[in-house]
Amino acid sequence: MNLSLKHPLRTLLTGVLALLPLAATLLLLSWLLRLLAVWLGPGSAFGQMLTGIGLGLTESEVIGYLLGLMLVVVLVYAFGLMVERGLEQGIAKLLETLLQRIPVVRTVYDVAHKLVGLLSRKNGEELQSLSPVWLYFGGKPGADSAGAVGAVDAATGAGKQGTAVLGFLSTPQAVLIGGKPYLGVLVPTAPVPVGGGLLYVPPDWVEAADVGMEAVTSIYVSMGVTSGQYLPKAGG
Question: Average of pLDDT values for 158-184?
């Protein structure tokens, strides 16, 4: 290649590489905004409900949507004040009693109530709901069980290494499958950690991960590029 072209091409490549993180961030934000527009925008079922609320005050659908949204925000804020003062317990108990009497609504409410309960943190638990955990396929490193991935090799004395996956514990309460205890672990996907899979694994495959929710999200969104920022680095 002509020497006169090398410098401009190198400069152009440098600019492209420098802009890639910004472009990836903008693409991710754009995807999130489109997702929110589908769920909460004026064209969604929720947005049409808000628009219907506000159309009583104006003929503009956009202004009606904004007025409906403002009303919902005010109501949620007022309910938040009630929660802080403990005034909502009587109302919540009454609503829960009414919802439990409706067959289909009762099922949906129970599922939603349990999902919200997963976000609660209980002190004293080694593994908490939706807390980051390591999932070791075959067992934790250093396990003594026969055939475990982390077991010590009898001939060489070396510890075997298996696959480790970073995920979230769905609930610390084990369930019985085939008469044996299993834990549910949510394993996200990269680079969009919103999706993923739910795996039921033996409790001795799961270990609490000393990282935060932000670290897990960053690692998956970056497809592992930022692992060195949150996880210990190997020597050498």
Answer: 85
Inter-residue contact 54 to 74 (CB < 8 Å):
no
**Alpha-carbon distance 152 to 154, whole Å?**
6
Residue 37: in which H helix or E strand, if any? helix 3-40
The span from the CA of 31 to the CA of 233, in Å, is 32
Query: What residues does each domain of the chain span?
Result: 3-117, 132-229
Read off the amino acid at residue 107: T
The answer to whether 233 and 169 have CB atoms below 8 angstroms apart is no
Contact 226, 219 (CB under 8 A): yes
* pLDDT computed for residue 179 by the predictor: 93
pTM: 0.51
**Which residues are registered as beta bridge partners of 207?**
134
Confidence of residue 70 (pLDDT cuts 50, 70, 90): confident
